[in-house]
Amino acid sequence: MTDPSALNAARKASRVYLLLVLGAxxxxxxxxxxxxxxxxxxxxxxGFTAVPVAAAFLTRRLTGVNWEYTLSLRVWENGKVxxxxxxxxxxxxxxxxxxxxxxxxxxxxxxCRYGMLFGSAASVEVKSPLLFLLVCVxxxxxxxxxxxxELGEEIGxxxxxxxxxVQRHGSRKAVLINGAEWGLAHLPLIYFxxxxxxxxxxxxxxxxxxxxxxxxxxGVIMSYVTIKTRNCMYAAIIHGAVNVIAEVPVxxxxxxxxxxxxxxxxxxxxxxxxxxxxxxLFRFMPEAERP
Length: 291
Prior knowledge:
single chain
């Protein structure tokens, strides 16, 4: 039986958090749209990870509603979930890139021009795609600094907001709502060309639609490990690993542009393995205890 007071508190905290996060993102997006200086876009891009955690702490202070889930760096205490988080989503992104380049062979260059990520001309010839994929997965799994950086988003969206949504809606409905709202927060960035080429058909609206899909797919996966362990660090591990390997596929293309189908997992073809994983996890989503 649900506790009405707990549900009211969860509803209030959810609304305040979303008002703060979406208000910040869309206000900066609107200012960039008006002035077109690039300044507000850069503030949003560089501060995007910090906004959710700041909103979570401020919401807690304003409403007095505490965290539902925890944050523990002792991820080795659940080795199976750590292995899953560190390797499986990244490996599936690699598999998605293989599917993309098998489908569009003319786009595969055989050279990884990774220097584009750092503003240089550095590149490496890919003699064994399978070995290259495995190395990228290992690097993404070991990217601990980036995983810790992604805690900014995960503390806000999964550790704080998700718990309230589970209380109100149950696990399955909550993870879909959480992923959709997380996607909405990204849209001001995507509108200005973040993660996608503005040369895509229907851009920026088509890019924005795909980002919504991506966030809901990844949101299911990261919410699953959070609900299962009640620890948002595993979601941060997935987030960090995905962000490392997600930019690699486009570095292997001739065009160096990320389209609606790929080669990065922001495209539909490369995203397919993650869609399958999210569907399976959604089917077996643990039903968290409700008050």
